[in-house]
Design brief:
It contains seven helices and 46 strands. The chain is mostly beta strands. Among the domains are: 125 residues, Serine Threonine Protein Phosphatase 5, Tetratricopeptide repeat, CATH 1.25.40; 265 residues, Neuraminidase. α1 runs antiparallel to α4, α3 runs antiparallel to α4 and α4 runs antiparallel to α5. A hairpin with a 5-residue loop joins β37 and β38. The chain is globular.
């Protein structure tokens, strides 16, 4: 009887038009899958060939363009065949059906019954953690609203790359529109709720050499490209589309705004004081939730809720801890957020009715951590996220700089944290090596500022009141570190005392900082070039247009940099740069030797990472007899003999899903 009911149910679903009407090519694929399903049912029911039927059901489930009702039925039948054969794969088929086909309610209900009979963890609503992929290097970062795809823009081509969750297949939507350098530098993207359009940021250098920040929208195939917003000096980050696609929720400068998709007009919802994190519309478009971090010891942060016109703002799940908004639940009746209120970073949910909190927060997942990248919530409540693992080590050795021969082969040294250690920099006297341990996102516990004794190998860990620290260099006095860092509310360049960890802010913004020997001239990258700032007067000026990586001479009078494929040197007081060399590699990490005689150039972005010694006054480059794949930062000791470098030995990213993540009431019905 069950078999007859299943076949009748499948026929009823097809005739009722549960699956959306496909385009011409899809229609043919859908009809083909239906024919194959009937053949598979015949093989199972009439011929009794369960193994043969399973193979046919597998092909249907993996067939592009097959109707969702067809695939759901195939998965159900496949599971039942496996059950009859006593195969454990039955549970896998049922779990996939429950996870990926919530819209096929009646078939999913049958799968839940079978899981319950098998004692499957997905049947009774228990939380299931499952690894989907062991390598996500070619998988984007946005789960579509229907939970079917993980999508994103290929910034090199403008194509939309997508990973189909159910089948594991990869595909591309070819970009048929224009694509230029400003798009390639974009950082943020959001898809409309129907998945048909994208909004993203772009940075354009104007004729006046000013950076203009833009918000652009287009169809997924690249057609219909428009620039909605364009303004000098104030970046714009798209956050979400309104459900009716009439506006883009965006963060501009320090304001949460709505930007009309019709005419680009801007409406300010709220000025933000603090470190803005994220924001999104409720599924019905009536409310906006956002979260902000604020400074403190320890830091704290809150999730806020307001109406879509910026009124009636209130704190949600208020607590002295740090809370960060993750997502709305698919039914729009709860918010999901990350919080350290229990001492670890956990996922919580709180019920929302009529734009107001109802009841106390509920713990969903203990010890989730901060570093995982959340991709989205599927309609059935499955929670998709990506994890990262970075492994590496610190090495040291010695080299004869005159001949290029290695004197002491590189060997790993013991460190407190698995690596790779990055942004290495020797103190002026060579007694200490500073670096960042545990590289990762800018959160507590990552990018630990470490001072290592050259003599003993002992490590000391500084704890400045900064959320993140990157791009470090020693101050000339050897008693402090100059770093680009961030608090909960701002980013800038800071001086960090190496004994007390006390911080002093030197300027807002900027990157790759170096302090000149006079103690008052700060060199940094900003505005598309290298700039200098007088710390006494606050006066700033541009030294030269240049690429990202550069280095200050030991006497503080010159800087070595790369531009248009050539490595050049220029005085900080201006003048015409002189070319030192070109053609050894496409890009370089650059550094001066302590005596000022040589430039050390390490190839960047190549597998072998060759290293050259180049006379600073000009001359023939000498390639060092040292080439270590995946070297992050080669740094020569002030004695021009010893060296240290970090090696990235493994970088792994995995896709995971928490199934049955939400309480039943929070799933899309």
């Amino acid at each position: 009887m069950k078999n007859i009911l299943t076949i009748a149910l499948a026929v009823a679903l097809w005739s009722a038009g549960v699956s959306p009407a496909p385009a011409a090519g899809q229609a043919q694929a859908s009809r083909s899958a239906e024919v194959q399903l009937k053949a598979a049912l015949h093989k199972e029911q009439v011929e009794g060939d369960l193994k043969g039927a399973i193979e046919q059901y597998k092909k249907i489930a993996a067939q592009p363009g097959a109707g969702r009702a067809t695939v759901a039925t195939a998965l159900l039948r496949m599971g039942q065949c496996h059950e009859k054969l006593g195969n454990a794969e039955a549970r896998t088929a049922y779990q996939r059906l429950v996870r990926d086909f919530a819209d096929q309610a009646e078939i999913v209900a049958q799968a839940r019954v079978r899981l319950a009979a098998l004692g499957g963890p997905g049947a009774a609503g228990g939380l299931v953690t499952r690894r989907v992929l062991t390598d996500t290097s070619d998988v984007a970062e946005v789960l579509t609203a229907d939970g079917r795809y993980i999508r994103g823009i290929d910034w090199d081509t403008g194509d939309v790359v997508q990973f189909e969750v159910a089948s594991g297949q990869r595909s591309r939507i070819t970009n048929r529109g224009p694509w230029s350098e400003p798009e390639k530098s974009a950082r943020w993207q959001v898809f409309s709720r129907d998945g048909k359009r994208i909004a993203y940021d772009a940075e354009v250098l104007s004729d006046a050499k000013d950076w203009v920040f833009q918000l652009r929208i287009r169809n997924v195939d690249g057609s219909g490209l428009r620039t909605l917003y364009s303004e000098k000096g104030s970046y714009v980050r798209p956050l979400d589309w309104s459900p009716d696609a009439g506006s883009i929720l965006a963060f501009r400068g320090n304001e949460l705004t709505l930007i009309s998709t019709a005419d680009g007009s801007v409406r300010v919802l709220r000025s933000i004081s603090g470190g803005f994190q994220s924001a999104s519309f409720s599924p019905d478009g009536r409310s906006v939730a956002y979260s902000v971090a604020r400074e403190g010891s320890p830091p704290h942060g809150d999730v806020f809720l307001m109406t879509a016109d910026g009124r009636n703002e209130a704190v949600v799940a208020g607590h002295p801890a740090e809370d960060r908004l993750l997502r709305w639940t698919p039914d729009g009746e709860s918010l999901v957020f990350l919080s350290d209120r229990s001492g670890t970073w956990d996922i919580w949910t709180v019920h929302i009715t009529g734009g107001k909190q109802q009841g106390e927060p509920e713990l969903l997942k203990k010890n989730f951590g901060w570093d995982s990248e959340v991709l989205g919530l599927a309609p059935d409540g499955s929670f998709y996220y990506r994890t990262y693992t970075v492994l590496g080590r610190l090495y040291n050795g010695a080299v004869d700089l005159e001949t290029g021969k290695v004197l002491v082969p590189p060997a790993p040294v013991t460190t407190r944290y698995t690596g790779p250690q990055n942004f290495l920099t020797w103190s002026p006297d060579g007694r200490n090596l500073a670096y960042l341990s545990r590289p990762g996102s800018a959160v507590p516990g990552n990018n630990i500022l470490t001072i290592r004794s050259t003599a003993t190998g002992e490590e000391r860990f500084l704890s400045p009141r900064l959320r993140g620290v990157i791009q470090i260099s020693w101050a000339p006095d050897g008693r402090s570190i100059i770093a680009y860092g961030m608090t909960e509310t701002e980013r800038g360049i800071f001086r960090i005392d190496t004994e007390t960890s006390e911080i002093t802010k030197l300027k807002d913004g900027g990157s790759f900082p170096h302090l000149c020997p006079d103690g008052k001239t700060l060199l940094f990258r900003g505005g598309g070039g290298i700039r200098k700032r007088n710390l006494d007067t606050g006066e700033e000026s541009e030294v030269v247009k240049a690429g990202m990586f550069f280095h200050l001479s030991p006497d503080g009078r010159e800087v070595v940099f790369q531009v248009d494929g050539a490595v050049k040197i220029v005085s900080l007081n201006g003048g015409e740069p002189r070319e030192l060399f070109r053609g050894l590699a496409q890009n370089y990490f650059l550094g001066w030797t302590r005596d000022g005689r040589y430039i050390i150039a390490q190839a960047r972005g190549t597998a072998s990472r060759e290293i050259w010694r180049v006379p600073a006054q000009g001359g023939t480059p000498l390639k060092l007899d040292l080439s270590v794949p995946k070297t992050l930062a080669f740094k020569l000791h002030p004695d021009n003999r010893r060296f240290a470098f970090g090696v990235l030995e493994e970088f792994k990213s995995e896709l995971w899903v928490l199934e049955n993540f939400l309480p039943p009431a929070a799933k899309k019905q």
